Amino acid sequence: MPPDLAPTPARAVSPLDHRIEAVTGHDIDTLWAYRDRSILDESHAHLVDRYRALANTQTGVTFYLHLLNRLSSGEFDVDDALLTRIDRTVDQLAEATDARDAAARKVLAALEPIEAAAAASVPGAKPLSTDDQAALLAIAGDAKLYEHLLTGRMSVTAASGTRIPHAELQHLEDAGLVVRDTGQPVALTDAGRAALYAARRTPSTLAPIPGRPGVWPATPTQRR
Questions:
Q1: Cα dist from 133 to 55, 78, 91, 137, 177, whole Å
Q2: 0.85 exceeded by the pTM?
């Protein structure tokens, strides 16, 4: 048997990504970056930590799944050594899948209180205008506030290149939807995340958020 049977896993999106992105207003990559920069509150930091653990377990599932596929592909002679290796790999895949499922339950346990808090804050809230939703989406994708050294004028630029008028920023700030700090990211408040979450649960005329680069470990098809 060749010693190196490690496959190169394909990349995919976790089934939990859309729920996390909807309730936080951030894509997964942005949440990861914010966690590394220690600018998330405790509940969101805990959620990202749990998701990181899930991503690691998904990598293990993908590895053993690809290994099993290769072992059974006909590439190797069928003998006792191969059959033993297949049996061992099936056991390892089952263990990795159990670990992934346990990690997914921990992600859900961290996610559900955030979803509940967002849902509780939505009733009675004023619906977002199209301009407000577009601005919040841009800010959710990472935005920074800058002050011109000579004129003192403020400007906000999102990572996507979108520029948000200062008047719009003030409007969102007065509504309690964003917070700002010169030279630092402009971030959504809990109310801002809840408002965006509610808006994204209903049909919108806004263009979809561009897909992120495939930087997360792969997620194999869930076991039935």
A1: 30, 60, 48, 6, 11
A2: no
